[in-house]
Amino acid sequence: MSDxxxxxxxxxxxxxxxxxxxxxxxxxxxxxxxxxxxxxYFKKAYEANPNIKNTHNYAFWAxxxxxxxxxxxxxxxxxxxxxPKSFYPYIVYANLLFSPSDYSNxxxxxxxxxxxxxxxxxYQKSIILFNNTPQDYQNSHQHELAYLYNNLANFYVAQQDFxxxxxxxxxxxxxxxxxxxxxxxCLNDESIKDYLCSIALNKVRLNVINNDLATAKKFLVLAxxxxxxxxxxxxxxxxxxxxxxxxxxxxxxxxxxHFSWTWLCYAIWQTDMTAWQAYVKGLIDAEMVQIxxxxxxxxxxxxxxxxxxxxxxxxxxxELAQISQFIDTPPTPELxxxxxxxxxLHYFYKCWLLGCENCHNLTNDDNEWIGA
Length: 372
Known about the structure:
single chain, mainly alpha, 18 helices, 70% helix
């Protein structure tokens, strides 16, 4: 146990209801993980003083780090009713509302459709409240404002309000473009270009949904100019546009993606069936080699290791069975191209803990900020 933690825990014994101390211990455990001690102490701080900061941090960390949405949702509903001054609670509540309920392709679409008006209201308020933060905070956290505009644009896409969506995407692009010119930005150029690539790809999806393939293609070229490592995403978007030849050419023979990328699989199969079959056969051969290696290992292993190895063999046998069925026919996309574009919209997330010094966040709900 570190000297710092020893001092903190000793102080807790003397002041067990000091919410600021309990919050400090939570942040210590966040930086030095020990099971769920971080959440335990955020909860203790909340129970000692259920003010906006403590409620927000406890509910946010329960959801963001531990996936406890059922715990967080009622806390945020009650919190928003108190009209927080900072924009953090509104953002987290919105993000919580559109969290997918499962891992199906349409889960996030359904979540957004269920709450689209409220999500837009929460994000619009967050943008207003961002502008109430200290000026130096705004200057050094422009990327957060760009996150807000990008995510808000996605909600407008879901509502088929393409004009407002386009305006919000452009706001996000303008912010990151300005940051790229600002040599004092808190983000490096590579990170900013990655963000710009993600937003450009969102504009591609917007225009596919809106039947404007010419504009979609322009933003594909722009996305690639920001990030030359985005080959798979670019190829996937070409496939969603129905340009299977260009999708295939973009892959350049590098088919290193999972079968869940069904539109890419379909593009290869449509363009060059021989290449597709050779690719699948290579995967089959690789699985067979893996299975043989584990079977050889099983014959010479300790009894305590047998179950794990048998489970691994079964996993690869299941993979082999799945791959083998695709040698003549690729996996079929479950969604239409437009539905897939909506499901694939990229959202930006970050740590929204009040008082998180590591992320240079706002200190409390009064919009105080100690700076970087």
